[in-house]
Amino acid sequence: MGTITPYETVKGRRYRVRYRKPDHTAAEKRGFTTMREAKLYLSMVTVSKSKGEYIDPSASRVPVRMFADSWLRSKQPPMSKPSYYTTLERAWKNHVAPVWADREISSIRRSEVQDWVSEFSTQKSRTVVLRSLGILAGILDVAIDDRRLAGNPALVTSATSLDEGRASVASTSRTIRLRRSRRARPTRPWF
HSE-up of 8 (CA within 13 Å, CB side)? Predict the structure, then answer.
């Protein structure tokens, strides 16, 4: 639970919400124009804490670069072949890092990723685009695992035409989900 208190500003009355995070430290958010908005925010925080889905907003204000190093380290040999690791490292440095490395993970939106993929697909091959998108999605998955991000904005990209309409990616998220479900599914004997 938490408290809601009014305070005065030059623009009029505003409301402050104070609550405790799951680690029992105090937090607050200010600037709500109506009591209803403040109550709604407090109830959303309370529900997310009770479900174990609370993400601290200040923990999400870190750049993508912070997770890229650990993600790339997880792909180093012997976890993967040296040639594969080299292509991942080059794709990160040449294609993903110039656009996304200094962005805060909480500021990345699906629409921005979709725009980047659409623009990028006019300049590079389908393989390069998919590899770069996969790198960004993998890095943001690390942030999700660290409880700094609720969802991965790089996983869902709608039908994007690549290579000037000759090849199309139906849905990157569908492909990734299919791969994960195949890994998770137990094998059955064929008899």
Answer: 1
Say how far apart CA 65 and CA 63 lie, in whole Å. 5
Per-residue pLDDT tens for 92-115?
999 999 999 999 999 999 999 999
How far, in Å, CA of 1 to CA of 153, rounded?
30
The number of residues making up the chain comes to 191
**Nearest C-alpha neighbor of 31 from the set 50, 68, 6:** 6
Q: How many C-beta neighbours within 10 Å does residue 164 have?
A: 8
- CA 74/CA 118 separation, integer angstroms: 28
Distance CA 140, CA 38 (A): 30
pLDDT tens-place string over residues 39-86: 999 999 999 999 988 888 888 899 999 999 999 999 998 889 999 999
Checking if the pLDDT of 183 tops 60, the result is no
3-state SS string for 122-186: CCCCHHHHHHHHHHHHHHHHHHHHCCCCCCCCCCCCCCEEECCCCEEECCHHHHHHHHHHHHHCC
Which of helix, strand or coil describes residue 106?
helix
Structure tokens at 86: 């080299």
